[in-house]
Each structure stands twice: as structure tokens, then as C-alpha cells.
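Researcher: I need the complex structure. Ligand is zinc ion. Inputs:
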Amino acid sequence: MASHGVARVSGTNPAIRSEELRQKELEQIAAYNNLVDLVNFKVADRQYTVEVLDLTTRLLNENPEYYTIWNHRRRILLDLLLIPSSDDRPSTTLYRRGEELIHDDLQLTFALLRKFPKCYWIWNHRIWILQKGELSFNSASARKLWLGELQLVGKMLHLDSRNFHAWTYRRFVVAQLERMQASVTDTSLESVHSTQSLTESEFAYTTKMIKTNLSNFSAWHNRSKLIPMLLDERSADSAARRELLGDELALICTAINTDPFDQSIWFYHQFLMSTLSPKCASQNMIVRDLSNQDRQRYYAHEMEYIQDILEDETECKWIYEALLHCASCYLEIEGSTQAFTVLDMRGWLRELKRLDPLRRGRWDDLGRSLDIS
Amino acid sequence: MSLVSGPGRGGMTAIPAELQLFVDKHVRYIQSLDTRKDELEYWLTEHLRLNGLYWGLTALHLLGHPDALPRQEIIGFVLSCLHGNGGFGAAPGHDAHILYTVSGVQILATLNAFDELEERVKDGRKKIGQYIADLQDPETGTFAGDEWGERDTRFLYGALNALSLMNLLHLVNVDKAVEYVQSCANFDGAYGTRPGAESHAGQVFTCVGALTIAGRLDLVDQDKLGAWLSERQLKNGGLNGRPEKKEDVCYSWWVMSSLAMLNKLHWIDGKKLTSFILQCQDPEGGGLADRPGDMVDVFHTVFGLAGLSLLKYPGLAEVDPV
Ligand SMILES: [Zn+2]
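Model: Output:
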């Protein structure tokens, strides 16, 4: 009902299906509806058995969006998982051990996610079954379970590096692993700062993803969220913080030089600039003891190399936008400057209007707010 | 999204062929949706029936044909999806969930049918309101989708929207909900599905919508968010949902309604967007698709039309951006 990217072919118009195809579709509908009725009837009848569980598997394979069937499946599983796991009867079509049930659902959701990577219900069910699994496993196996998830989500992001379900899931899995490690080490009374967090490795992961594809804004975004945690966990002092800021600015400078037309890169640049502002909340600042002179130095430096790029790329609107943005930040700190003139700013605004007529209304408003129109 | 009461804006004036909206075709397409029971797709999408009905009904109102679907039958169907606990399922026999509960309430509001609800279900409004209120997490202020506990800013917006349509906002802690929305804000001024999540135009709509209902638009970094939203427009006039993604008609609604709430509709090129949306029509069978030449569906049909309404396309009824 909400299809994306499916080409319209006039031959698929149901009105002009051949009679044979029509009959076939009617048979498919009857079979599907029979299965739906059967599952609904048996669940309403509280037949929470392995047999009915397998029926839901069949149905979900045909239609993973049918959320009520996922709910039914959980109702059945909740019942089946109550059977003590010490029970060592052999597995049959009538009986399955708790671990097997959990394993089966991990398999099912994995196979379905590969086909339907944007289906909310599948991701939800996977989290649910993992949480059940964690309860029935010892802590080492439970940790292994979540570590496996980190691998799985790595695969999903390899297939589609922008899938926001997968990124959300990744942050969730990382939080689970950190939680488990924290509870393991809690008892040992050690300071566990360096071992329990995955922030460093997740930060490295965003670096890897960005280097593969500069326009992966999902990775840039995650990086922006990791930096404040990273600095805290490293107990970074002022020098270390300045160094990290310098590294990030250098990274984004290279990226801008590589492809100045990519908006992901400019949004990350905007992020770095926003951490310099005196208005930035202190927990989000990269460097916390910036003087206004420091700020101006940073702004001037950004403007300098961005202007250098202009020599080769006069038709890139992002350059003019960034220049105006840096200039307005600069002026917020000090009303006048030698670094650029109002005439420069008017020129940049003129270029923006020329190169980006789609957003003409915005540039008009900007000119008015900067008092340069 | 609901309709601003009062008549639509005037009739059709002379419009060039490529800017033509195929009103009759779209009306017939929507009317045909419930007659397609010999297509497997009809049955495979039953989990969207109530939303689909809301989308279709809204599209018909926008097109100026509010009576093209039978009112009594719709009310009957909607109430057949209502559970004893006050939640709606997607169709009879489907479990209750906030997504469908919101659609149910929106349909009843569109049809002015809350009196009928009370006649047929004693304390119906109160029960529905309580179902929604019970899904709020008192600690964080956010909302679960159902008893199984998934949380998402889509649910939070839906909850506030449905409660405000029923005048029952006092049942929940609005301040806590607002706090939660703010924790989903990112440096770019936009919002994600939960704290830490990447900005996404759909989530911007839900968060800005929630803040509008709560009367707290002052919390939005309006220039930054407006800038981010305006950058969703691509050269072909269409809008995308995140940086460096493809255009899609449904974002005409998510992005445009957010810009409307910020009074910044003029920050994108309305003419180009209008022509992009119109190219997504199926001129033969009616309906709109995500992109020109793709299969149409009722979801993209209503969001494309609602986008056109915000763009003041002649002849369409006016839509409320929230
Ligand atoms: Zn879409």
C-alpha cells in the first residue's frame, strides 16, 4: 500500500490479466486467507504449540508486515519458553527446547531482514527474542549473543550503509553490550572505564564507513554523537581536545576538497562550527576553554581554505554558504574585522542567489537578517 | 493532518496540460481501492486498512469530493476495528496499536462522528483516550506503540494529535513529552526517531507537529531546521528525507508541513515541487506514486495531494499542517 521504487507497468493492470493468471491469483488468495484464518483461530483457541508456531513462521514468510501475527508468535513463545530448559527430551516436531526456539527466531528474523531491511516489525521482534534469550542464557553466552548482533548489523550496513533502522539497531546493540559489561565488572570494584565502553571502536567504525563513502551522512551523524562521549571517556584535557578538533577539521577539509558538492560533508562541517559557538551547550563542546580570539582564529582559518577552493570551484553554492556562515559567526563575536568586508559578504550572497534559485526565499531572508541585502 | 474547515479555494482556472491534476481519475482510483479483493496485494496489505481508509478519505476531502465514500459504512468499519481496551487494530481481528488508534480517531474527527461513537460505544472517547494515555512512559514522557513496548517519536506525535482531536490532552504529561522530543533534536536543528538517531524528515514532522500541539515551537531552532528542510529539495523539484537520498512524493508532506509550521514555505521552490508532484500522477488509472513512472498507492496519493494543497494548487481544499 506504500510502495517505493516499483515501476508502473501497464501489463500489471489487473483489468487486463489473462484469465489464467486471474485464476492463479484467486487460488493464491484462498490459500493465504486459509492460513490466516487457521492461525487466528488456533491462537484465539490458545493452542500455543510448536505446530501453531510453525504456521506463524509460514505466514510471516509470506507477509512480514502482518504485525498481529508477530504478536501471536510472541504469545505462543512466551508459553513455550515456560517449559524448563533443563528438560532434555529430544527435539521433535512437537517439542523444542528454549535455546532452539530462540535460535529459530533469530534465523527467521535474519532471513526476513535480508529481504525486508526496512520492516519495523521484524527488527522489533528480533530485539524481543534477544531479550528473552539473554534471560535464559548465562552471562557469557548472552554476551556472545549480542556480539553476534554487532556482526549482523555490520552486514546489514554493508548492504545499505544508510539504513536508519540498522544504525538505530547498532546503537541499541552497543548499549546492550556496554550494559552487560558494566554489570559483569561492577562486582570487581575496579575502575572499568577503558574496558566497558565501545565508544572508541564505534568511532573507528564511523571513520571506516566515511572513508568508504564520504557522502554517508549516517556515519557522520553517529560520529557527531560519539565525540562528546569519546572525550569524556578519554578524560581528555584541553590539549587533547584541541587536538581532536584539529583532526576533525583536517578530515572535513580533505573531504570538502574531494567533493565540495556533497551536502553530507557540509552538514558535518556545520556541526564542527556549531561546537565552537559560545552558545553551544558545554557538554557538546569539543574544546571547552575557547577564548574569543581562539574562535576567531578557527573561523578565519576555515574561511581561508574554503576561499582557496573557490579558485577551482566557482559554481559550488555550498562554498558561499559556508563563507557567509563563518563570517556571521565571526561577526557575532566581534562587530568588525579585517578578514573580510561587507562587500565580500554581499558578493557571496549574490552568488548564492545565482547558483541556488530553488532556495531564493531563504537567501533573501538571510540577506535581511545579516543586514547585507 | 486534518482539514481546515470552510470551503476550498475557488474553481479551476486555465492550467497548462502538464500542470493538470486528474481529479476525477484520483477520485475513482480511491473509490476502487476496496473493490480489489481479487488481488493478492489487497489481502497482503490488510495491516494498513484503517490507515489506508484515512488516507483515502483525506485525499477525497482535499479533492473536493468528501462524499465519494459512504459515511455510515466507514463509521461502521472504523468501529469494527475498536477493541474493548479502547485501542484500534488495522482491521477487524487485528491487534490494537497506537498507529491505527490514531487513524481511527482521525477518521472519526474528519467525519464529525464522535457523537455516533458515543451512541454506539459507551464512554468511547474516554476509553480511547485512556488507551493512548496508558502508553506513555511516565519516566521519559515518550509513548509505546502497544503492549509490546516499541518506542518512537511517531507514536508520541500520534498520541498528542489524537488526544487533541478529542480534547483529552490533559490525560497525559505534555511537558514530559515535550522534554522527550527535545532530547531527539540534533545539531542540524532536525529530529530523529529517538535520542541519538539521525535526523529524518518524517521525524521532523512528528516532532515539530508534537511541539506545535503542545504550543512549544519556541524550542525549535527554526533557522537551522528551516535550512535543513529547504536542502531536502533536489534539482528536479522533488524532496528527499535525508541528505544525499533520493526524492519521494511522500516527503512533499513531511517537509512542507514542517516548513509551514515554521512559516518558511517560501524557502523552497514551490513551482518546481508542484510540477514534480504532478508528474507522479498515473494519468490513466489515477493515483500518485513515489516517483514519476512508478506504481501508485493511496499513501503517496494523499501525501502528494496534501503537498499540493500547501502549495495552494487551485481547487484543492486547504489542509492543516499539523
Ligand atoms: Zn514515499
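Model: Summary of the prediction. The pocket of zinc ion is lined by residues A 4; B 248, 250, 290, 300 (CB under 6 Å).
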